[in-house]
Amino acid sequence: MVEFWVNVFLVSLLVIITFNIMRNKRLIAIVALSGAYSLTAAAIFVNMDAVDVAFTEAAVGSGISTILFLAALRYLPVEEAHETRYPIWSLALCVIVGVLLIIAAFALPEFGDPNAPAHVHVAPRYIAESYPLFHIPNVVTNVLASYRGFDTLGETVVVFTAGIGVILLLSGSTLSMRLKDADTKSEENSDNASGDIVKNSGDDT
Amino acid sequence: MMFVAVLCACAICIIMLVVRASKGPSAFDRILAVNSIGTLIILGISLHGFALGRPEFVDISILYAILNFLGTLAILRFYPVPDASEENKQ
Questions:
Q1: Separation between Cα atoms, residue A155 and residue A65, nearest integer Å
Q2: How many interface pairs between A and B have CB atoms less than 8 angstroms apart?
Q3: What is the CA radius of gyration of chain A?
Q4: ipTM of the assembly?
């Protein structure tokens, strides 16, 4: 009973925060509120016993994406542009898709139903076999690291590559930026412009 | 019963803080409000674990506390200083 009301409170808090984000004009407030949104969503996941999902939501949603938004905010003005349009067709499309999703949600199995399709397919085998086979106490870790090891490796490679790309873009060491730097420097001392470019592209890495 | 009362107190505090985070005149009000929302949610998770007899929820709260702290630190680190002084004047 208490758990039900905690869920009701948290979900309505999410709705309130969402409306605040929509109506707010200050970008820094929007970033701060979206951090609060992810922490609330993580609390909902904890309430539903999905602790690992909640960890990810808290780390990525509230931690890293807030930092990335703030880093991007340095290149933007403080306020959102004033002329906000409200296209009626987009609203209608959103409402229709939302109603369809709510109707589809009624066909989902009950929360925690032991006969749900997700619980009768391979999950019993994982629960029964995983500890005797691999001796890892957490079943979720076992599935991710042992049964789907190659899949997890691929995901890690993708995320790592994306992270390298973002770091390169934000630190400004792409080729065009380095050439621009070299140009401004060679204008200052116009002795050996071509040598400067080669030296700079080597130094910046 | 006491648990429910404390949870209700947390809920009221969170609602007031959300209002402050969205209206707050200066950016630092908002940062403080969001940080306090995080702290109250950590408190709620700990209470929840205490009421249901699951002490491992405290570990989750500790991790959230670290993330909350890091997030606030990042906001203060990245916040453009000239804009902050302009906002305070308004």
A1: 18
A2: 99
A3: 25
A4: 0.74
